[in-house]
Amino acid sequence: MIKIAILVSLIFFDLLTKYLIQDNLFLNQSIKINEYFDLIYVQNFGVSFGLFSGYVSHWLLIFIALIVVILIFYLFIKSDKQLEKLAYFFVIIGALSNIIDRLINSYVVDFILLHYENFYWPAFNLADIYITIGIIMLIISFFIKSKIVK
User: Fold this and answer.
1) Closest of 57, 24, 52 to residue 40, by C-alpha
2) pTM, whole model, 2 decimals?
3) 102 closest CA partner among 142, 132, 59
4) Nearest to 12 by CA among 132, 84, 76, 97
5) How far is it, in rounded angstroms, from Cα 30 to Cα 10?
6) Which residue out of 14, 38, 101, 110 is catalytically annotated?
7) Which of 14, 38, 101, 128 is flagged as catalytic?
8) Exposure on the CB side of residue 52, measured as CA atoms within 13 A
9) Residue 47, SS3?
10) For the chain, what are the domain ranges?
């Protein structure tokens, strides 16, 4: 039951922040927070970093994302390692949140922009952070597993 509450809370928080950005900024408007971080309203019609934007239907992207979530959920169920399960859980939360956003808007709202001088990382959102945390945890769990095997 706690996992469901965490899942719903994190998805809600991601969708709420996306809504607040859409409601308070114009498209491509940015607000400088400090010399490394801006808030910006970007509509991502593609996949990661806007790849395939305009070339692939949002319905196809939703379908592919749902298949990936099902596969990750299968790995989640099969895993007997707590860190691995938690990692899959974070990836699922992030993916579901971006799927819901794409269902609502036909695009994903990105709003976090990190940069250093003239070097900019593509804009992203909280769901992307959840996925990244999950991937980092998975990598750590794989390293732990490989050290145990040796």
Assistant:
1) 24
2) 0.91
3) 59
4) 97
5) 24
6) 110
7) 128
8) 9
9) coil
10) 2-149
C-alpha dihedral sign at 90, 96, 100, 103: positive
Alpha helices in the chain (DSSP H): 2-24, 58-78, 82-105, 126-149
Phi and psi at residue 41, in whole multiples of 5°?
-105, 110
* Pair of tokens at residue 150: 């040796």
Q: Please give the Cα distance from 15 to 66 (Å, whole number).
A: 18
* Rounded distance between C-alpha atoms, residue 42 and residue 79, angstroms: 36
Q: Which residue has the tokens 């994190």?
A: 10
Residue 23 bears catalytic tag: no
Order the strands of the 119-120 sheet from edge to edge: 30-32, 37-44, 108-116, 119-120
Q: What is the mean pLDDT of each run of 10 residues along the chain (150 residues)?
A: 92 98 97 96 83 78 95 96 96 98 96 95 96 96 70
Backbone angles phi, psi at 27, to 5 degrees: -55, 130
To the query of whether residue 128 is one of the catalytic residues in this protein, the response is yes
Can you say how many angstroms the Cα of residue 15 is from the centroid of all Cα atoms in its chain?
11
